[in-house]
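User: What would this chain look like folded?
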Amino acid sequence: MNKKELVQAVANRAGASQADVDTMLKALIDEVTEQTVAGDTVTIQGFVKFEKVQRNARTGRNPQTGEEMDIPASKGVKVSPLAALKSAVRDS
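Assistant: Here's the prediction, encoded as C-alpha cells.
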C-alpha cells in the first residue's frame, strides 16, 4: 500500500475527504520527524514507537573483498512495533 492508497482507505473508513486526510497525514509525518530529530521518542500507543539512536563507530568488512574498513559513528532512527500491532500480525 502506498501513500495515495492509504489516504483513500483512511478517507473511506473515516468518512472524510481525501484532501483532509492527506493534510492530516502530512502534518503527522512532519511532527513525528521534527520530534524524532529533536531527540524525543514518539509513541503512538498500541501501534509504533519512533526514537533517535546513536550508532558507535566500528570496524566492518567489505562484503566483496573481505577487506576491513572503518565505519564512522552515525545517527539513525529506530522504529519499533508495539504490542497491539505485534499481536495483530502474529494472530493473522
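The chain has three helices and five strands. If you want, I can go into more detail on any region.
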